[in-house]
Amino acid sequence: MMTVHFTCKQCGSGIHVYPDLEATRIQCDVCKHEQPVKFDQNHMNSILKDCPGCGRKDFYSQKDFNRQIGVALFIVAAIISTIMLYVGLGPEWYLSTFIVLYALDFFLFRRLNVVAICYKCDTIFRNVKNINEIHGFNHEMHDRIVYSDHNFEGKPLDHH
Ligand SMILES: [Zn+2]
Ligand SMILES: [Zn+2]
User: Fold this and answer.
1) What is the domain count for the chain?
2) If you measure from the C-alpha of residue 100 to the centroid of ligand 1, how many angstroms do you get, rounded to a whole number?
3) Which domain holds residue 72?
4) What are the C-alpha distances in Å from 56 to residues 2, 33, 41, 152?
5) pLDDT of 8-24, one tens digit each?
6) For residue 126, what is the enclosing H or E element?
7) Nearest to 52, CA basis, from 6, 87, 103
8) Residue 24 domain-assigned?
């Protein structure tokens, strides 16, 4: 299911939620600030058309920063293997460490590595089914949305 990572408008903390048709407000765990949300049936089906935080339709896609966890896993695997080698365990032990960590990396992180982000309110969406319809970051769109409050209504910027 799609997960939604809001940013608290008061203190900037992350607020992590699943879409919920019943929810009308979310509360920040850190500062207890509440802000309105509006989920629809698309969100329940992991389809992103409207932002539940600000109602806009302008999003960009980006590689998830969690990719770095994958790199960290390999460093851990290398350390474990070195220790195993040092204490005299056979190659089947340290090879299987790599395989397990590689599988973990692949299933947990690589599959989820593209996220959609709302230009207007910076809400991050993971596990979005229609992620292929969402274009990469566009500086001009970003500046016009953030500084001029322009609304593109979900249409990518025409460069001609
Ligand atoms: Zn807060
Ligand atoms: Zn938004």
Assistant:
1) 2
2) 38
3) 67-108
4) 18, 22, 16, 8
5) 999 999 999 999 999 99
6) strand 124-126
7) 6
8) yes
